[in-house]
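Project outcomes to date are best conveyed with an example. Our students and postdoctoral researchers have been running inverse folding experiments weekly, and each run begins with a structure described purely in tokens. The record below, which covers 392 residues, was selected by the lab manager from last quarter's runs and is presented without edits.
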């Protein structure tokens, strides 16, 4: 199958490429891939573990190998022999110049970037160009995944965001202030009839106009914000307190990270949507809102070794107050990259099974799944398994 990655030279994208090509050459095994659990074995008939990659990028490096090597030198996050083993394959993957329209001040912090809007293109010209790029790569086995840096929260406008006609009017009239890059990529993918997954907290395909387009063109899509680290633990652990009728009085999560993701999230406008995504899960699971602190801070020397310190204050029998602490310490790209391949495979499966619109059953992979309040990891997994078992 083919996967078009928005943010193709980022650490998550390049790690996914290294893993995918390593699997094809039997250099690595399938550890970390949910889609390779025995219960999903039939998925191979619809989406085999063989991938071709393309994508858009705003840091215009030579190719995916150069990008992967840049990240590896900073992180040493896997054995260099794996990267050496897939060098030839990654050198052939060259990203197209993309857009970072209204993505927030954090994007400028990445250093020298090249975007279509800096060339003076209108919204329509940007959409036409990214559509042309994707169309030149895609076939019936293609999925588009957004793995770009987190955008700032967009200016919501009912006229342009609530209907497909309004959205296309926004493009035609070049109402730049109401558009973001993730919306434009989602629009291009859905317009081409390609399944779309949003691994970021950015708005992507979640506005009503693009949900309308997905239904109109009978395209499956899913998101938002990949559930990979601290929030994965939070949504797995929080149900325990409900099951045991223990009242959570407060939950503090303090996240520190470096690398490009950390640099982007060090800017308040980019951080806002990430904090919102992390914060909302407790109320959805517990049914009430305990006192909550969610902090995300840039810590350069950690690079991609994302660390989270969580403190939970809870009340039990006889009104006694107690405490629970945990530390999540993991290489963010290593826990995130396999999910990119999982989501792509399940979305292609959904398309082949005639599913379209928001595929809520893929909520297992996301912090803020669309059109459902179910964020309990245990129940999300059961829903995923049941959905797959009935369709296969």
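After processing, the design step wrote out the following sequence:
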């Amino acid at each position: 199958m083919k996967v078009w990655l928005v943010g193709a030279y980022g650490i998550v994208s390049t790690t996914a490429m290294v893993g995918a090509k390593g699997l094809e050459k039997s250099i690595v095994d399938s550890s970390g891939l949910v889609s390779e659990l025995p219960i999903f074995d039939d998925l191979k008939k619809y989406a085999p573990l063989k991938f071709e990659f393309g994508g858009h990028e705003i840091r215009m490096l030579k190719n995916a190998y150069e990008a992967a090597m840049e990240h590896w030198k900073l992180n040493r996050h896997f054995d260099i022999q794996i990267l050496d083993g897939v060098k030839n394959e990654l050198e052939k993957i060259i990203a197209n110049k993309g857009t970072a329209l209204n993505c927030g001040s954090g994007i400028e912090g990445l250093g020298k970037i090249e975007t279509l809007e800096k060339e003076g293109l209108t919204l329509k010209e940007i959409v036409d160009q990214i559509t042309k790029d994707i169309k030149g790569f895609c076939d019936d086995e293609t999925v588009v995944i957004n793995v770009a840096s987190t955008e700032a929260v967009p200016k919501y406008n009912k006229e342009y965001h609530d209907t497909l006609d309004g959205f296309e009017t926004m493009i035609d009239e070049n109402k730049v202030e109401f558009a973001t890059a993730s919306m434009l990529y989602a629009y291009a993918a859905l317009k081409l009839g390609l399944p779309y997954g949003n691994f970021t907290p950015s708005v992507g395909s979640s506005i009503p106009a693009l949900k309308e387009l997905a239904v109109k063109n009978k395209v499956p899509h899913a998101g938002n914000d990949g559930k990979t680290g601290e929030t994965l633990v939070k949504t797995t652990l929080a149900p325990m307190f409900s099951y045991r009728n223990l009242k959570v009085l407060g939950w503090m999560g303090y996240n520190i990270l470096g690398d490009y993701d950390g640099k982007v999230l060090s800017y308040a406008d980019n951080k806002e949507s990430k904090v919102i995504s992390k914060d909302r899960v407790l109320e959805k699971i517990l049914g009430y809102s305990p006192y909550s602190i969610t902090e995300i801070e840039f810590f350069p020397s950690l690079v991609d070794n994302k660390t989270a310190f969580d403190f939970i204050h809870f009340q039990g029998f006889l009104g006694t107050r107690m405490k629970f602490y945990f530390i999540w310490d993991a290489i963010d790209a290593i826990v995130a990259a396999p999910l990119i391949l999982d989501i792509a495979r399940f979305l292609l499966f959904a398309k082949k099974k005639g599913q379209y619109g928001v595929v809520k059953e893929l909520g297992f992979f996301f912090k803020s799944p669309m059109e459902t309040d179910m964020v309990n990891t245990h129940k999300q997994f059961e829903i995923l398994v049941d959905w797959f078992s009935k369709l296969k």
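The chain is about 40% helix and 15% strand. The chain has two domains: 2-226+334-391, 230-330. The training component of this project remains on track.
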